[in-house]
Amino acid sequence: MVNVKVNGIAVSVPKGSTILEAARYAGVEIPTLCFLKDINKIGACRICVVEATGARGLVTACVYPVAEGMEIQTNTAKVQKARKTTLELILSTHEKKCLSCVRSNDCELQKMCKDYGVEDSGKYDGFKPHYELDTSTAHLVRDNNKCILCRRCVAACKQQFVSVIGANDRGIDTHIACAFEKPLGDVPCVSCGQCIVVCPTGALTEKDDTGKIWDALADKSKHVIVTTAPSIRATLGECFGMPIGTNVEGKMVAALRRLGFEKVFDTDFGADLTIVEEANEFVGRVKNGGVLPMITSCSPGWVKFAEYYYPDQLDHLSSCKSPQQMSGAVIKTYYALKMGWDPKDIVNVSVMPCTAKKFEIGRDDENAAGVADIDVAITTRELARMIQRAGLNFANLPDEEFDAPLGEDTGAAVIFGATGGVMEAALRTANDWLTGQDNEAVEFHEVRGTAGLKEAAYNIAGTEIKVAVASGIASANYIMSCIKDGTAPWHFVEIMCCPGGCVNGGGQPIQPASVRNTTDLKALRAKALYDQDAAMTLRKSHKSPVIETLYKEFFDDGIGGHKAHHCLHTTYVPRKKFQ
Amino acid sequence: MQKKISTLPFKGTPEQAQRLQQVIDANKSDPSKLMGVMQEAQGIYGYLPMEVQQMIADGMGVPLEKVYGVATFYAQFALSPKGVYNVSVCLGTACYVKGSGDLFNKLSETLGIGADECTEDGKFSLTACRCIGACGLAPVLTVNDDVYGRLTVDDIPGILAKYND
Predict the structure, then answer these.
(1) Is A179 on the interface with B (CB under 8 A)?
(2) A51-76: per-residue pLDDT in tens?
(3) What are phi and psi of A304, to 5 degrees?
(4) What is the mean pLDDT of residues A293-304?
(5) Given phi > 0 = left and psi -120 to 50 = alpha, else beta, which region is A400?
(6) Contacting residues of A for B65, CB less than 8 Å apart
(7) Which long-range contacts (CB under 8 A, 24 or more apart) does A25-30 make?
(8) Contacts of residue B67 in chain A, CB cutoff 8 Å?
(9) CB of A74 within 8 A of CB of A25?
C-alpha cells in the first residue's frame, strides 16, 4: 500500500494506483474527458491535470501513478486555469451548434465548459477544418466538426475487435475516420454503436429515424404498431433521471400508447418464438449430425461480424431470424390476417437497444409478407426523445399493460436482454423437451454474469451438452477462431455483439464517463431483467400461451415446419470487408 | 494538409508481391515491426497504395486502419506513386520569397496535378519540399537529380519539354 494525501485527506491505496483512483478513495472526484474505465486510458485530453509533489508541472491524474508520501492538489487556481485553457482550446475547432445538437444537456464537453466558467467560446478562434458528415451507414452519423479527438470511439472499436476507425493524418488535420478515408459503410463496421455510447459530444449519433415515425403516426391510412425489445424496460428510465436498473415497463407502455401507436406489443413474444424455433433447430442438428456448435443469431452486429470475418463458417449460425424480425413477420402475416389488414398498410416500429437493428431491417430475406418485416427500428434514446417532444411527463405516467395477444411474454424472453439470457432461455426449453417433463429448475446460474466469456456443461437426459456464452466481439472472435481451427468443444453457443449483451447495447441511454467510471452499468441493468424473470409465473418460452396459439392457429405444420420456416428463418451472405 | 490518396490503378507485379511477402514473413511475429515493414514496402513499390497496405495489414495481423493511420501520420510515407520524373519545388523561406509558390502553381496547372500527385501516364509527379541548401540559386526546383535555379514562371514549359519526349 502507498500513503498519499489528496487535498489534505490522507489515504492508503494499492501500489500502482493512479492519482485518479487514489482521489476516489479520498472521496475526491477529478474531471476526465478522454479517460474511460476499462476502455481508454491515454492521458491525452489533459482535463484531469492536478498538482502532485515530486512531479514537474501538472500531471494527468488518469495515468500518473502515485508514490509514497505524494501530496496531491486537485483543485488549485493553477489547476482550474489549466483546465479552462484546455477547454478553450478544444472549443477553437469545435462546431458549437449546441442549440440543436442531439447531445445538448448530456454533452460532457458542454457540462465541463459550464463548470469551469468558459464564457468566451471563441477565445482561440483560428483555422477550423471542415468535415463532411459520414451518413453512409444505416445506423450512424459521424460529424467530425464536433469531434474533440478524445479517441474513446477508437478505443471502443478496438475493444470490439473490428478497429475500423482510427486517427488519420496529423496536427490540425488529425481526424477520426476509416482507412483510405472510406465512408463507414464501405468498411467492415459491425454497426454495434459502442462508439456512440462512449462519445462525450455530438460527434457520433445514431441515425435519427423518429421523423419516419411521426409521419406514419400522422397518416390515418396506416396501422402503426410498436414492439419493444426485452432490455428497453430496464434502461428507458435513465433518460428521465431514474436510477440505473429501474424497470419502467408499465410507464413505457403508457408512453407509447399516448404517442399514438395503434398497438403496443412486446418483442418478448418474438423472443419466445425464437427460442422454440432455435431449440428445435438445435435438437435437430444434434440428432441428425448437423453442423455444431450452433450459434445464436439474435444479434445483428454479431451476424454482420461473422459475415465479414468468418464468411466460410456461416453454417454455424442458427437460421432463426432475430426476435425483432420474428415479431415483425408475425405481425404482418398472422396478425394482419386476423385483423383483416393489408400488410402494406402496417408500419412496424421496433424500439431496440441496438443500432445494428437499423441495419438488420434492410437485410435480404427479412420480409415474410413480401414487405419489410420491420419498417423503422429506433433506439432507446430516440424513443426518449419522442416522449420528450410529445410533452409526456414520463415519471408520472400510470403503469399500463401491453396489448393482447402479442404482448404476453415469459421470463425466458425478458432475460434475452442480458448476456447469457438467450442461452438460459434455450436451456429451459431444451431441458423440458429432452427430459420430456416440466422441470422445476429453471435457473442456470453458470451462464449468468457480465463476463465476456462463460462456459458450462450440462447433462440433460443422459446427453452432455457443452455451451459457451460470449458477449463482445473480441470474445466472439475467440469462439470463431476455435471453431475454425477445430478445437471448439461446444455444442451450442450464444453470442451477443455488445459487451454484457443488449442492456449495454449501442442504442442504450448514454451515461457520462463520471457514471461509467464508477458504476457497473451492465450488471445493474441486467439485474432489472433477472428480477422481473424471477417474479414471473411463466418462465419458459414453450409454455407461453401466445406461442401455443400461434402454432395452433397459424404455423399449423408445427415448430420448424414449412410455414414457420418461411416466416421465421433467414439466410446469411459472405461480405467483402472493403468496398 | 491531409495526405492525398492516389486514384491511379495499382500496377504491382508478382515479383514485388513476393518480395513484400518475404518481408512480412520475417516480421509478422512482432506487431511493433509494422513501421519497418511499411518502410520496406515503400522501398519495393515506391509508395503505399491500398493494395499494399492491405497486404501488410493481413500479413501482420493488424487492422487496415492502423496501417493507414501510421502511413498518414509520418511524412516519409507516400500514398501516391512518384512519376518517372519527380518535380520537386522548394517552398523553403528563401525560395518562397523569390516566387517559388508561383512556380509550383504553374507546374500544377501545366501538369494538371496537385501536390503529391502523379500524372495519369505516370510520367510526372509533383512535390513541395523544404530547403535543399541551394538558397543562393533561389527559387529552385529539382527534376529527379537535376537542379534548376534562378527561375521564373516562364522557364517552366522549357524545363518540362526536356523530359517530354
Answers:
(1) yes
(2) 999 998 999 999 999 999 999 999 99
(3) -65, -40
(4) 97
(5) beta
(6) 163-166, 178-179, 187
(7) A28/A74, A29/A514, A30/A61, A30/A62, A30/A74
(8) 179
(9) no
Adjacency order of strands within the sheet including B117-118? B117-118, B124-129, B85-90, B141-143, B146-148
Residue reference for cell 425464437: A274
Put simply, the answer to whether A173 touches B1 (Cβ < 8 Å) is: yes
Cβ within 8 Å of A, B 20-79: 50, 53-54, 63-69, 72-73
The CA distance from A567 to A514, in Å, is: 45
What is the tens place of the pLDDT at every residue in B114-140? 988 999 998 999 999 989 999 999 999
* Residue A168 contacts B where some CB pair is shorter than 8 Å: yes
List Cα–Cα distances, A367 to A191, A372, B3, B97, in angstroms. Answer: 21, 4, 44, 67
A578 at B interface, C-beta within 8 A: yes
Helix (H) or strand (E) run with residue A308 in it: helix A300-309
Between CA A571 and CA A52 the distance in angstroms is: 59
Longest dimension (CA), chain A: 78
Q: What pTM did the predictor assign?
A: 0.93
Mutate to test the interface with A, among B62, B70, B72, B77 (most CBs of A within 10 A): B72
CA of B3 to nearest chain A CA: how many angstroms apart? 7
E strands, A290-338, where?
294-295
Residues 81-140, chain B: which have Cβ within 8 Å of A?
none
Nearest CA in chain B to A177: B65
**A408: confidence class by pLDDT, cuts 50, 70, 90:** confident
d(CA A382, CA A206): 9
Q: Which amino acid is at A521?
A: L
Using one digit for the tens of pLDDT, what is the confidence trace for A75-95?
999 999 999 999 999 999 999
Domains annotated for chain A, with CATH where assigned, are: 2-91 (3.10.20.740), 129-204 (3.30.70.20), 211-568 (3.40.50.1780)
